[in-house]
Amino acid sequence: MKDDIYYDYYMSDRPKKKNTNERIWSVLIASLVAAFGPFSFGYGMGYSSAAVTQLENVNTTDLYLDKEGITWFGSLLNIGAMMGGPMGGWMIDFFGRKIALMLTAVPFSAGWLMIGFGTMEGLLHAGRFFSGLGVGMASLIVPVYISETAPSRLRGAFGAFNQIGIVTGILVSYIIGHALNWRWSAIAGIGPPACMVILMTFMPETARWLLAHNKEERATQTLRWLRGPDANIEKEIVEIKESLNIKEKMSIREFAKPSLLRPFVISMAIHFFQQSTGINAVMFYCATIFRKAGFQDKSTMVSILIGVIQLFAAAVSILMIDRGGRRFLLIVGGAGMCLSCFSMGAYFYITINAAPKSGGGETAYYGLDLSWVAVTSVAVYIVGFAMAWGPCTWLIMSEIFPVKARGAASGIATLFNWFLLVCHHEDI
Fold first, then answer.
1. Which of 7, 340, 347, 406 could serve as 381's disulfide partner, Cβ 3.0–4.6 Å?
2. What residue ranges are annotated as transmembrane (predicted)?
């Protein structure tokens, strides 16, 4: 039987019978604690939205950044994440999933301390780079930890905690950015990784990593805590061992075989189109966009509204992904994002080039206030991404590769995703 017909036990789409003796609360706790990682991820992404509006205003900050400095402030997070992804891939195998996740707190905390107490532009940029390292590491480690902790029949639902954590972090960063200045907002960013380290101390290592390192007794204890004393963990241990035995060493020559080349090209194309949507530029500069749309002091409040919409859309996507199908959601979500970009472009074209002639102000056209077009366009754009191109890109990547190539191919695709983010990052 060929290698590419096998599916990893932890990624298999085959339905599993419900074990009525399994308990869920322990898995829920472990997933919620791990979700502090993507929460810190989202907080770092959303932080610049409010911070940039303060840092670029020489009258409201003690440390001013010019246009070039602002551009680097946004893009260095992506550069750090591009390097953090491969580091996370090495760490989960060497240290284990639990320790690797706890270690992400080091670059996160170092980055926020540099920004919060930095006295020069270089420290702010270094802080964003270190925060990016944490983002890249967490983006790889957390999905692995949750997928290996959750029972097979609920793996999809618990896997959504990663995306929910990201958008919740973005929303909280908008709220804190509205209430506090950029320094205190950065210092507040130390809280989530600190909580994660403390709480992860009481969480177990995954049984899969323990079995891969010949620690069957500890793996049994882990599954007993996660599944409950009455669950049939012996069967799960056997299935994990079988999946570990299936995997063989990966050779670079495998990428030339159609069984891997085709899914690899598809995954890379989806990653390319995901970053080509420009979602991260929108999230980084959300408040700036609304300020230029005429909201001025209310720009961060509108950003908070957009964050709430994004969180709601991410929650709805949990139900839609399996019912609507990945391909259908990508098409519908992409169409909605295209329409919103068109309306946003038309809005700025009209207000910048035609509005002054009408005498109605920067957001008016012949007496009509069109600022609502900006809010509606961004809202539709965010919904399209949060329900489709956000979760589906990573889900398809986890499903499409054969088992023995999944680690290497997924690592390359993740690196490619962050590389594209750096290349596509433009000043707004």
1. 340
2. 24-50, 70-92, 99-120, 126-146, 158-176, 182-202, 260-290, 302-321, 328-350, 370-396
Averaged over successive runs of 10 residues, the pLDDT of the chain (428 residues) comes to 40 47 86 94 86 73 77 85 84 89 96 92 92 90 86 74 86 87 93 96 92 90 89 86 67 70 86 83 71 67 79 79 75 89 83 56 51 81 85 74 65 80 55
Phi, psi of 199 (to 5 degrees): -75, -35
What six digits make up the tokens of 256?
A: 């030339």
Structure confidence at residue 121 (pLDDT) = 87
What is the DSSP annotation of 370-421? -HHHHHHHHHHHHHHIIIIIHHHHHHHHHHHS-HHHHHHHHHHHHHHHHHHH
- Report the run of H or E that residue 358 belongs to, with start and end: helix 355-358
Q: Alpha-carbon Rg of the chain, whole angstroms?
A: 23
* Ordered DSSP codes for 196-212: HHHHHTTSPPPHHHHHH
Q: What is the pLDDT of residue 359?
A: 47
Q: In whole angstroms, what is the distance from residue 286 CA to residue 279 CA?
A: 10
β-partners of residue 369 are 364
3-state secondary structure of 369: strand
Give the residue carrying structure tokens 């967490």.
138
Question: Cα dist. 314→150, 167, 247, 286, 330 in Å?
Answer: 20, 8, 33, 18, 14
What is the model's pLDDT at position 199? 96
d(CA 100, CA 112): 19
Q: Identity (one letter) of the amino acid at 208?
A: R
pTM of the model: 0.78
Alpha helices, DSSP H only, in 254-354?
258-276, 279-284, 286-290, 299-324, 326-353
User: Which residue bears the tokens 């990547």?
Assistant: 397
What pLDDT, on a 0 to 100 scale, did the predictor assign at position 192?
A: 95
